[in-house]
Amino acid sequence: MEEKPLDKISLPEPDIDLGEELEEEILYEPETTWGEVIQSVFAAFSCIDDIDMEMASPMDRKRIKRIRRKGLRMIDVGIGEIYAEKFETDDNNEED
After folding, report:
1. Distance in angstroms (rounded) separating the CA atoms of residues 57 and 46
2. Dihedral over Cα of 73, 79, 85, 91: its sign
3. From CA 11, how far away is CA 60, in angstroms rounded?
4. What's this model's pTM, rounded to 2 decimal places?
5. What are the two backbone dihedrals, phi and then psi, of residue 12, each rounded to the nearest 5 degrees?
6. Most exposed among 37, 41, 53, 77, judged by the fewest C-beta atoms under 10 Å?
7. Three-state DSSP class for 47?
8. In Å, how far from its chain's centre is CA 95?
9. What is the DSSP string of 41-77?
10. pLDDT tens by residue, 30-64
């Protein structure tokens, strides 16, 4: 088969009309609220409540303590944010 020079090769025209917009579904996930974070922490706590610390391995004990420590911090920050948001709005309404 004889090879043609690159400038002599004809390419088929694309079938896409560039003036036409492509329809794409855009997925939007809203930001997680502090209430959802607190619910997730309580779900995690309920998972580890039934674990017998005496039977757990040393590594598992460290994980459980870490989950509790981080969960308590998240609850503390979340409640603080919810409190500030609630009472900040009430204070602004009272001043008007």
Report:
1. 19
2. negative
3. 63
4. 0.59
5. -65, 150
6. 53
7. helix
8. 36
9. HHHHHHHHHTS-TTTS-HHHHHHHHHHHHHHHHHHHH
10. 788 999 999 999 999 999 999 999 999 999 999 99
Dump pLDDT digits (tens) for 77-91: 999 999 999 988 666
Query: Is there a contact between 30 and 38 (Cβ–Cβ < 8 Å)?
Result: no
First and final CA of the chain: distance in angstroms? 86
Q: Length of the chain, please?
A: 96
The Cα diameter of the chain in Å comes to 88
The first and second tokens of residue 29, run together, are: 């996930």
Instruction: Yes or no: say if 71 and 44 are a contact pair by the CB < 8 Å rule.
Output: yes
Token pair of 88 as six digits:
């900040």
CB atoms inside a 10 Å sphere around CB 41: 19
Q: Tell me, what DSSP letter sits at residue 56?
A: S
